[in-house]
Amino acid sequence: MALGPHGTFPLPTTRSRCSAKATSSIASIPWSHRPDPLRNPQSVSSSATSPASPQNCLPGAGWTFDSQKYTEIQDINGKNYKVGEYVIGNGDVKQFVIYWYQAHGRSIPNEYVAKGYLVADAIRMNRTDGALVRVITQILPSESLETARARALRFTQQMAPNLPRFVPN
Which of 56, 111, 152, 158 is the most exposed, having the fewest neighbouring CB atoms within 10 Å of its CB? Predict the structure, then answer.
């Protein structure tokens, strides 16, 4: 699986009303209090302190949470990630979502815990960088939830080992 320009995977995306960087296919959104447009062209402005939470962003764009849970997944190298898994809906469209906050070698599925680490890291390391990693796949009317989950999981397992190239540890 090859990375495209700026560390993104070459998948079609559509913009959400919540954020110019929110997508309906995949988003790995780097953020920093010191954006560097040459090394990280997707950095948010310096006034931002954290990426938009899916808990707030998705409902604001018309999506509902049909189910949600925290779980662990393992990448192709055997590294474990704590993630959130959601099924979201907007009218007749259903999507399966895997997401987590990635910062300093940690995967955190809960936005409030992630914000706690953000404050602690700012104090201990003078760093507030990290990313919201989100993988979304549509659940087609002709397929089961498990088929869509397996597709998102396969992609995530192959993509996750590449994160340290773009998200500082």
Answer: 56
